[in-house]
Amino acid sequence: MSPPQLPAPPAASAAASFIAVTAKLSLVMAVMAIAWNLLQLLLVGLMGRFDVVGVLQNEGLPVPPAFIWLDQHAVSLSLLCLLLSIIFLAVSWALLKHREWGRIGFIVFLVLVALANFAFLPLIHTMFDSMQAMVPAEFLNSPQGLEMRLQLRMGLWTSLITGTAAALALAGLHAWLVVKLCRPDVRALFR
């Protein structure tokens, strides 16, 4: 006599599977971001012992104001990134547990990250201008300096094009996720 067959567990709906996969991937990304931010804080602490701006200035190299600002606010920026990663971890956990505030919070993160990707594009130009500003004017006017300026200009355009393409692709993905998270069958899973 064969053992009695247990009824098969109910199959998860496509909406529930979508939420589970999205939340689990987000949890992994949040944990990785927290680990990265902790490492970044450690590096900022170590770099604080080395006065990078002072070394550059002692060598007679011009230090762009943006670099000085980043150096002055490195700890605060690192702590802010860590806090955002911890909040994202909580939101992802709430999404996995089908909490309505997790769904709303996740949508907010998706929209903010998509907007931030576009907001950071102008900084690419600033970064390349800062790199060129650190090079002495005498060198920039030499034949090697002309070649370096051309390479910087090519790097700028390559970075702007790839940055814009990446921002558009991520915005499209995030828009798709927002639409899926707002569908009635998905919203019905949350309380």
What this model shows, in words?
This protein has helices at 14-49, 52-58, 65-72, 74-96, 100-119, 121-133, 137-140, 143-181, 184-187. The mean pLDDT is 89. It is elongated. With 191 residues, the chain is mainly α.
List the helices and strands and how they pair.
Layout: H1 14-49, H2 52-58, H3 65-72, H4 74-96, H5 100-119, H6 121-133, H7 137-140, H8 143-181, H9 184-187
Helix pairs in contact: 1-4, 4-5, 5-8, 6-8
What is this structure, in a nutshell?
The protein is mainly alpha-helical. It has helices at residues 14-49, 52-58, 65-72, 74-96, 100-119, 121-133, 137-140, 143-181, 184-187.
Count of individual beta strands:
0
> Based on CA inertia axes, which overall geometry fits?
elongated
User: Helices and strands: which structural class?
Assistant: mainly alpha
Order of helices and strands: HHHHHHHHH
- Low-confidence stretches are none
Figure out the total of helices: 9
Mind summarizing the main beta sheet? none
How much of the sequence lies in strands comes to under 5%
- Ends: how far apart? 45 Å
